[in-house]
Amino acid sequence: MLDFNHGSDRPAEDPRALPATVRINELVDAALTAEREKQSRREYLGASMLGDPCSRRIQYEYVGAPKDPGKDFNGQTLRIFAAGHQFEALSIKWLRAAGFDLLTEKADGGQFGFAVAKGRIKGHIDGVIVGGPSWFFCPSLWEHKALKDKSWQDLAKRGLAISKPLYAAQVALYQGYMPELAQHPALFTALNKDTQELYHELVPFDASLAQSTSDKAVNILQATDAGQQMPRIAANADYYLCLFCPYAKRCWHGA
Ligand code: SF4
Q1: How many domains does the chain have?
Q2: Among the four 95, 126, 131, 172, which has the fewest Cβ within 10 Å?
Q3: What is the mean pLDDT of residues 181-204?
Q4: Domain range for residue 113?
């Protein structure tokens, strides 16, 4: 017979103990942080960062400047990145089920992408679509993002170029350096992480955006080689982008 009332052999709860959520998340986040620290640093300018409007911030990333204290990726951010990969896997599955022949890796298991400037500028794309509905032109570049509802709604309303210029620059640069994927519009897919709605946009190649993004990359490499800092994006530290920048102290106060 069950008896839930004896209780005498259970250890008394320590009221000073941290809640299980805090204690367990500390372990999870420590494991994720340790895993990340094992990964080697990117020693190239990645296409995903080149759309950032501040060249100095991109340069800090490129040279591996330490972020300001407390501004490095925390456990929660690492979990968000990991969840993004899972959302991407779902979108891939759904697009394939819908009849798109979507390749996400080469026959040898490597990623599709490009490398120029002796490997100092690189990009890795999410996939290539080589088959699909009769109205769909391929091969085409496929790029995916998983977004929070507010960000997704804005994208769906205003479109990639206006709502997400950073991603638009990324797509343009990929197409610029992978001309076989510039003949047809890229397919940009965004999954709403809160509602699982899907947004798809066909993005024609924007040669001028690709050129300006590539020029930005070359300028950053040249300045870095010459030991020069790129200019700041703003005249004052209270500029809205600087307020959220993980290098703000380093940038404005030389920390
Ligand atoms: S603090 Fe502002 S100017 Fe400095 S790197 Fe960051 S975004 Fe650029």
Answers
A1: 1
A2: 131
A3: 97
A4: 45-253
224 lies in some domain: yes
Separation of first and last alpha carbons in the chain: 67
> In this structure, which residue's CA is closest to atom 4 in ligand 1?
251
**Can you give the pLDDT at residue 4?**
63
Instruction: Answer yes or no: is 4 within a domain.
Output: no
Cβ within 8 Å of residue 208, ≥6 positions away: none
Q: How far is CA 180 from CA 45, 56, 122, 228, in A?
A: 22, 32, 17, 35
- pLDDT classification of 254: cutoffs 50, 70, 90: confident
Q: Can you list the positions of beta strands (E) in the chain? A: 45-46, 101-103, 113-116, 121-124, 127-131, 140-147, 186-192, 198-203
Which residues sit with their C-beta closer than 6 Å to ligand 1?
54, 56-57, 232-234, 241-242, 245, 247-248, 251
Dig out the tokens for 171 from the structure: 């797509």
Atom of ligand 1 nearest to the CA of 55: 8
Q: What is the pLDDT of residue 202?
A: 98
The CATH number for 242's domain is 3.90.320.10
Is 138 within a domain? yes
pLDDT of 164 above 60: yes
Q: How many Å lie between the centroid of ligand 1 and the Cα of residue 247?
A: 6
Asked whether residue 18 is assigned to any structural domain, the reply reads: no
**pLDDT at residue 12 above 70?**
no
From CA 164, how far away is CA 155, in angstroms rounded? 7
